[in-house]
Design a protein that fits this description.
The protein folds into 3 domains: 3-122 and 318-322, Nucleotidyltransferase, domain 5, CATH 3.30.420; 137-308, Nucleotidyltransferase, domain 5, CATH 3.30.420; 332-449, no CATH class. It has helices at residues 65-78, 103-112, 124-135, 137-143, 197-202, 215-233, 263-268, 277-280, 287-299, 314-322, 358-375, 396-413, 429-439, and strands at residues 3-13, 17-32, 35-49, 53-54, 86-93, 119-121, 147-153, 158-164, 167-174, 181-183, 189-192, 256-262, 304-306, 324-326, 340-349, 385-389, 419-424, 445-449, 459-467, 470-476. The longest helix has 19 residues, at 215-233. The protein is 31% helix and 29% strand. It is globular, with a radius of gyration of 24 Å. It has 480 residues and is α/β, with parallel strands linked by helices. InterPro entries: ATPase_NBD, EutA, FtsA/MreB. Pfam families: EutA. This is Ethanolamine ammonia-lyase reactivating factor EutA.
Length: 480
């Protein structure tokens, strides 16, 4: 069995705190006489975890880029990590920090200085999934029936990820967090987020900058907020809970069996409950009181609460240890092109309703590539990765027809592109790559990878070889 270790890092820049970890991932190639070889991450070890920093901000609107760059460089030295050895990981900006004016500039600046193959992202959906992986919610869903919800509550947002049978099935985000209201130890409001003002007004609650608020009044705000979010999760909405959603939901929340809390507020749930305004504001915000009221609100629901494996560092651990995947072991890759970051994924169905029809596939492919030409920057090469889905059975003849159609359509619509990336759900990458190469008449460089689940993200990073022919990959959402 071919095995190798790779180094992965995680840097999570949140509303309140910033964390850094280093982990090692063991990649192993597995297979036997009856199946194609495959590569899997079979072991993960955290080798270094930084202290928890207060996220450096210049003001309410900007992140301090210089301080963050210094922090990253310092932590690399402290962890004795060589930049050249980092093959995977993530730099993510989360919560309200993702909305800062210079968030996009900073995250790419840091990712460029974090290693050759590090994800740069600020998507709440991905953040929620990573936190659920780091907290143990995803693993828990593999062992029990029903839906497991992970709620990662930080300073600015509560990211909810629902898991079932080891897969993330739904994500959504609330404006619920400890730093949404900041106060002095006397109870003077120094900051009240604009994101919750309409919800406060709808519930006849007030909490404006400059107000002097009592413990009882603040507890009512926190309890109403907690019950409002829980009511949405149990499909019994009250207290205008939709106003707390970051984005309007289009799907119904399925019945939830168990709930796991992570994040800074999740960690506070095991602390002693605050009983006066001074104890509430020991961090200068409502975090401790929000934690107390969430415990109370959740206890009245049908959802069972389960302890997280990790709370405060759940997202960064998910980023450093869980976002990396491995391609199939038999792939077709021009290794001189690697690594390639931030490739948009466009998906086309090979079959429709379980039926293969060459003419209909060609029409679907033509339509999706024409749409892609109008959406993506054709100066980037590759402009996107073509994802082939819904393949029940792929005979030799069907494989040749897929390759012929993909080659003809791509070279016609993107005549200046020199790289074609194809990703497949099924075990067919090597054969497809060879078929494409055989008909290649314009020196198109081809990458075909398989055994990739591309349903949970809209961008892919292709990393370096990790075991045999397999390469490391990351599927993610980029959203600012």
């Amino acid at each position: 069995m071919n095995e190798s270790w790779i180094t992965s890092i995680g840097l999570d820049i949140g509303t309140s705190t910033t964390k850094f970890i280093v982990s090692h991932l063991l990649i192993a190639e597995k297979g036997n006489h009856f199946s194609l070889p495959s590569c899997q991450i079979v072991d993960r070890k955290i080798t270094y975890a930084s202290r928890i920093y207060t996220t450096p901000l210049k003001n309410d609107y900007e992140i301090d880029m210089n301080q963050l760059a210094d922090l990253l460089a310092y932590e690399y030295r402290q962890s004795q990590t060589d930049l050249q050895d980092v093959k995977a990981g993530a730099v993510i900006i989360t919560g309200e920090t993702a909305g800062k004016q210079n968030a996009e500039t900073i995250i790419h600046y840091l990712a460029d200085r974090a290693g050759d193959f590090v994800v740069a992202t600020a998507g709440a959906s991905l953040e929620g999934v990573l936190a659920g992986k780091g907290s143990g919610a995803m693993q828990r869903s593999e062992k029990v029936e029903g839906v497991i919800a992970n709620i990662d509550i930080g300073g600015g947002t509560a990211n909810v990820a629902l898991f079932q049978q080891g897969k993330a099935i739904q994500t959504f985000t609330f404006h619920v967090g400890g730093r949404l209201i900041r106060l002095t130890e006397e109870g003077r409001v120094e900051y009240s987020s604009t994101h919750i003002q309409s919800w406060l007004a709808a519930n006849q609650l007030t909490c404006k900058k400059g107000d002097l608020i009592s413990y009882d009044a603040l507890e009512k705000v926190c309890m109403t907020m907690s019950e409002s979010m829980i009511s949405y999760l149990t499909s019994s909405p009250k207290y205008e809970c939709e106003l707390l959603l970051v984005e309007k939901m289009t799907h119904i929340v399925p019945p939830i069996t168990e709930i796991i809390y992570s994040g800074g507020v999740g960690q506070m749930m095991i602390d002693e409950n605050p009983v006066n305004i001074k104890e509430v504001t020991k961090y200068g915000d409502i975090g401790p009181l929000l934690a107390k009221t969430l415990v109370s609100a959740a206890s009245d629901s049908s959802m069972k609460r389960r302890k997280a494996i990790e709370t405060t560092r759940a997202t960064v651990m998910g980023a450093g240890m869980q976002n990396t995947e491995v391609s199939g072991a038999t792939v077709f890759v021009d290794k001189s092109l690697l690594p390639i970051k931030n490739i948009p994924i466009i998906s086309v169905k090979v079959e429709e309703d379980g039926q293969w029809k060459k003419e209909l596939f060609h029409a679907r492919l033509d339509q999706i590539l024409l749409q892609a030409r109008g959406i993506f920057d054709i100066r980037h090469d590759p402009p996107f990765a073509l994802a082939l889905s819904d393949i029940q059975f792929c005979s030799y003849d069907i494989l040749q027809e897929i390759s012929s159609s993909a080659y003809e359509t791509f070279s016609r619509i993107f005549p200046d592109s020199k790289v074609l990336v194809v990703i497949c759900e099924a075990d067919m990458a090597k054969a497809l790559g060879q078929a494409l190469t055989k008909i290649n008449q314009i020196d198109l460089r081809i990458i075909c990878i398989d055994q990739v689940d591309f349903t949970h993200g809209d961008y892919i990073d292709l990393g370096l070889p990790v075991a045999g022919e397999a390469i490391s990959i990351s599927i993610k959402t980029l959203a600012f």
